[in-house]
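Thread: quick sanity check before group meeting

JM: Hey all, I'm pulling together slides for Thursday and realized we never actually wrote out the predicted structure for the chain we discussed last week. Dropping the sequence here so it's in one place. If anyone has concerns about the input, flag it before I start.
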Amino acid sequence: MRYAYGLTSALLIGGATISLVTGQPAGAQVAQNDDSRIQTTVPRAGAPASFADLTEQLAPAVVNISTRQRVEVQSANPFAGTPFEGLFGDRGGGGQPTTREGQSLGSGFIISADGYVVTNNHVVTPQGNGTVEEITVTMPDGAEYEAELVGKDADSDLAVLKISRREAFPFVKFGDSASARAGDWVVAIGNPFGLGGTVTSGIISSVLRTAGAGAYDRFIQTDAAINRGNSGGPLFDMQGNVIGINNAILSPSGGSVGVGFAIPADTAAPIVERLRRGETIERGYLGVGIGPVTDDFAAALGLPRNRGEVVQSVVDDEAAARAGIEPGDVVIAVNGRDVTPDQTLSFLVANVKPGTTIPITLIRDGKRRTVNVTVGTRPSAEELRESQMFSEDDAEDQMNAPLDGNEFLAQKLGLGAVAINPAIARQLGVSADTRGLAIAAVNPNSDAARKGIQRRDIILSANYQTVTSTEQLETIVREAEEEGREAIVLRIQRIRGPAGYVAVRIQ
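JM (edit): ok, ran it. Output follows.
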């Protein structure tokens, strides 16, 4: 499930009017010349009498996507702590991890006669410690095809699959989302809750809704009903073109409340084409932390409202630092394009090819100036998380994700830890050649917390063995359990003060 603003995500559904013939693009206009008049199946402007023709012609290209996953879980004994515990062998907290089969459901749509399928990345990506073993695409007529994952991109939440058969597949085409207007009718087709071929209709509520801090958190907002299982499905205009890919919903209850989000086709189409060709998605990167220009900030600097973003921090040795951009600068334009809430600095820079030199207009000390920046390559989402993990001593909102990273260590030691790399070493203020595990989160109810271990401490060794990966630490804990030991000895480099040894009980 994908979340917008911490909200429940959902898979979307859609439909559209256009003749869909096997091997012909759904969304292609059906017309005939009769007395110099073009007749089409496109409804007239205004509320259409029915979406039935549109749905009938487009639905064959909308598919159900399911995955079979192998998920590692820690075995548990339901009778642990009772006289019956031994009846189930070593299945208490110290049991070996086991695997279970998981599944996910989503939607997608075919974009070519030879079987390329578009969906959301989160539909085909396992959560936690899972591994996707099989992806199945099910056609509206029930035919199933095993799919190959051609490529995926976490930042834009897009993925491309490939299915094959002798006959050509029905398919649809991307349209021009830039020409969409608030109030336009749209149709969604998909598989909410596994109910295949579901159609909903509505209007575009907003043509460009910024719903997050990511470079691609820019969506078409619609009130067409969208629910779980619709992710990756198409949002059609009345010409049968895909103008959006249903991605998420805003919902306090988990159900549709009429606020759905779709990735605009103008954003998705170029990325899909590159994934289809097997290319790696590279994006531009400045290496800055940014914040909004508030009304008071704008008033203080004499800036127009809703214009520009403030540079809060600059990463050493990255593009911005090399160009002389400093904290406190207000960036108002990138390569001649204004920085606004709908056209953010992250979005503008991400869409610049790495290695390109571009002008950036900024305000410093009340004066406008322009600097030329050679854009760097944006790190992966995981690398960005690591680079920001220890940026603030009291970043409580960053505490949960590290604990989720290794379920075993979180359960046994109450710790979330990551291997130290140069970026993390820089955040911690230690030498770049420091080796060990940085503690990213501590369960306040754990023995480690009671022993005074804190976030930003560094684990140098466990049971007198140097550790440089979470896998090494996990192996040492498992060996200790097998030997019947109830604790392990950690050598901890404290945030402040010298390194010391701490015995931590295994939970």
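AS: nice. Residues 284-377 form a domain with the Pdz3 Domain fold (CATH 2.30.42.10). The chain has a mean pLDDT of 79.
JM: adding both to the slides.
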